[in-house]
Specification:
Layout: H1 9-19, H2 25-57
C-alpha cells in the first residue's frame, strides 16, 4: 500500500476554504440581506399567527 500523507483537521479545513473562490463585498452583502429578508418574513408570519390566535380567544 502506498503511504498517503495525512493532514491535520486545521490544514484540511484551510485547504477546503482556500479552494472556494472569494466572494466580493457585494455578494456577501446580498447574502446577508437575503438572510435578513427571510428572517423578517418568518417573523411577520409568526406575528400574524399569534394575532389570529389572540382574536379567536377573545
Amino acid at each position: 500500500m502506498a503511504d498517503t500523507p495525512k493532514l491535520s483537521v486545521e490544514k484540511a479545513l484551510k485547504k477546503l476554504r482556500n479552494s472556494d473562490e472569494p466572494k466580493s463585498k457585494n455578494e456577501r452583502h446580498d447574502e446577508k440581506m437575503s438572510a435578513l429578508d427571510e428572517e423578517i418574513r418568518r417573523m411577520r408570519a409568526q406575528r400574524l399567527r399569534l394575532d389570529r390566535l389572540k382574536r379567536t380567544r377573545d
